[in-house]
Amino acid sequence: MEKNNFKKNNVYISEEEKTLNWQDIQTSFKKNFGNEIYNSWLEKITLVKEFNDYLILGVPTRFFRDWIVSRYLDKILEQVKIFKLSLNRIEFKIIEENKQNQEYLKINELNKVTEIKDSILNYNRLNPNLNFQNFIKGKSNDIALSYSKKVCEHLSRHNPFYICGGVGLGKTHLLNAIGIELEGDNNVMFISAERFMYHFIKSIKKNDMVNFKDFFRKSSVFIIDDIQFLSGKDSLQEEFFHTFNSLMDKGSQIIISSDRHPIKLERIQERIKSRLAGGLVVDLEVPDHELKVKIIKKKIEEIQSQFKENINLNDDVINFIASESKTNIRELIGVLNRVIAFSRVHNKTLTITDCKNILKDVFNQIRVITVDKIQNVVSNFYNLALTDMLSQRRSRPLARPRQIAMYLAKKMTSRSLPEIGRRFANRDHTTVIHAVKTITRLSEQDDEMKKNINQIKNLLLEQ
Description:
The chain is an alpha/beta fold. It is 57% helix and 11% strand. A hairpin with a 2-residue loop joins β1 and β2.
């Protein structure tokens, strides 16, 4: 028997005569391409006809064929050759849908566009309360505010326009204000990256990518919030990249926000980061004391006007709240609401001492806690090198502190499980889940573990 012969019904057959098992090949695709690409594109490929040296594969639409040929064809051929060495090319055939289905699609073609449009508008209406008039100006946001207004005056001069800054500093407010300013004379599309992803996946499942592309690329002003949520989603980034290029080519204004500078975006294609960084990038910084005081006084005026009640907070109390709140505007408003609620319930004019008692736990909790900070504090607490704690080694002296750090990252930051996993040497989110469950159980059963975790928490809150 030659090396590449196979036995079938007790008769030896050559490699060229071997019949492919398409299910095995699909399993291979899933393993080598990953779940996201497989579920979005490769799962829908069918085997139409097999010849000695080539295959005819079926795909549902012309768009599917073009996408797969341009991005995955070489690797697909490489995979199928593992199962049959004689194969040297692949052809694609668009599987005809039955006549009744074609007629249905033709009748409802316009309805599909309307469905996308209505669905997007349902979730992404511009908020009339987030406008330029009620955006409070300060040193930390002066540049971002000025250029946001300039973008409205001179479309496409600063393109793309990219606003970056931490949570709760006013990015969405500025994007919304730009949209309100421009929507009268322009076709404005305002959407979050998360909703863009939702409609992308939905359109793939319904074989309706043509209408998805047409709808988003018709806008003359395209505003997308929180672009960092495209992280790690390769097929979605491909679509965003082509949408971005198409809009730039037709002269549409693109406005984007993120929690970090384009170059610092994680798991985003370099070509996307390069294009984003090539526009005008402005930062929103943490508000200074003066701006926080302005925001508090403005919020008090709004509450008094809306609810027709007198709120008596003197300047000393306002200055105390502004000086002690160290993070962002959203949390500053939360602290103010807590003070006002206490004053209202107890019907008294508050002093600084009262505020200290009301907010002693809040000001401890809202100190900025990051995954990096947790990792450093935990590794120091256990007298370990940070590189050792983050390594792939699984010995107990390293594994337990690593699990504690993951547990605290989940409990004390707003990072998602996949994000936390990536910060621990690209571990899977299931590893983080296991760590959280393990430390939760041990802290309930082991007093020493509970004591250590509390000590580490205190160290984090003190710094």
